[in-house]
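FORM 12-B: Structure-to-Sequence Request
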């Protein structure tokens, strides 16, 4: 690929443009073995951002349409995760994106493959893709079947569509976490519901500025409002290679552009573990490690205030 073509590929101004670029990049993966190369980059990303636990989305739809075998792909992913866990002591788990982009039949097919695979590295399913092309109500049967199978369920909602999309994800799909969810800020009653029930938001500030549905500058992002109103906030990166941002960058954005204090950021980091699909004992272990590291760092840097 030429430099000019690469620049054009990564130049997009809305969610649909990003999704098109995402699918194009996926098309350059020529075999299941190439997924190992992807995990080389993921490994570096985890190290650079000191991420000790991550739940990653795997979107298999375009690969399956090209004839790839689901079991072979999951096997390569599992092998990569296992190797990283052994060498780096960093834990990863997978959420399979059933995808709203290709309709309910495709989503059900992805779910059936996931259930059949019964892989210990897979936690559950997610609903990603363009909200405008696949409303949550179209996938109610898929999510009901996933929950019955004992899988966790999450959904992107309120990224590019008004707050009704979030309500459908909560009330119809029974989503345990909401990806993005920023249009909730326009709906006071929904904000109260989310705060009362402590449903986690998976907020990705930089990518939200690309959709321009709610915000076009980090400084205007509603994450500050949602946090102040008691919502359960976690900070994440939505495809960091595509949006040229790291998790550390996102926390710096909170601190430098959105007036979050260092202690606010500590609490949000801990929220990430609390929202994770891990045991209570693991949550306590990670929380204690964060608090210990935080206390030690500020003791070593007395000139920095929280």
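FORM 12-B RESPONSE
SEQUENCE OUT:
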């Amino acid at each position: 690929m030429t430099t000019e073509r690469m620049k054009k590929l990564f130049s997009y101004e809305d969610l649909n443009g990003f999704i098109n670029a995402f699918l194009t990049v996926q098309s350059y993966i020529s075999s299941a073995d190439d997924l190992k190369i992807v995990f080389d980059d993921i490994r570096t990303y985890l190290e650079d951002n000191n991420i000790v636990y991550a739940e990653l989305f795997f979107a298999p739809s375009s690969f399956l349409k090209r004839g790839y075998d689901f079991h072979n792909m999951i096997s390569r992913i599992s092998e990569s995760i296992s190797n990283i866990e052994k060498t780096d002591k960093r834990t990863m788990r997978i959420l399979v994106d059933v995808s709203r982009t290709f309709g309910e039949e495709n989503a059900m097919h992805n779910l059936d493959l996931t259930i059949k695979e019964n892989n210990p590295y897979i936690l559950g399913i997610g609903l990603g893709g363009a909200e405008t092309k696949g409303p949550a109500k179209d996938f109610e049967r898929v999510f009901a079947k996933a929950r019955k199978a004992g899988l966790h369920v999450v959904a992107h909602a309120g990224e590019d569509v008004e707050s009704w999309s979030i309500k459908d994800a909560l009330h119809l799909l029974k989503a345990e976490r909401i990806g993005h969810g920023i249009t909730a800020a326009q709906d006071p009653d929904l904000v109260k519901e989310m705060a009362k029930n402590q449903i986690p938001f998976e907020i990705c500030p930089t990518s939200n500025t690309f959709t321009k549905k709610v915000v076009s500058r980090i400084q205007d992002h509603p994450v500050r409002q949602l946090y102040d109103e008691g919502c359960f906030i976690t900070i994440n990166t939505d495809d960091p290679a595509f949006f040229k941002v790291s998790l550390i960058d996102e926390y710096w954005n909170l601190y430098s552009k959105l007036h979050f204090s260092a202690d606010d950021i500590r609490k949000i980091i801990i929220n990430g573990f609390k929202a994770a699909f891990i045991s209570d004992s693991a949550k306590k272990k990670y929380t204690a490690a964060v608090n210990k590291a935080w206390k030690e760092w500020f003791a070593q840097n007395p000139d920095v205030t929280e």
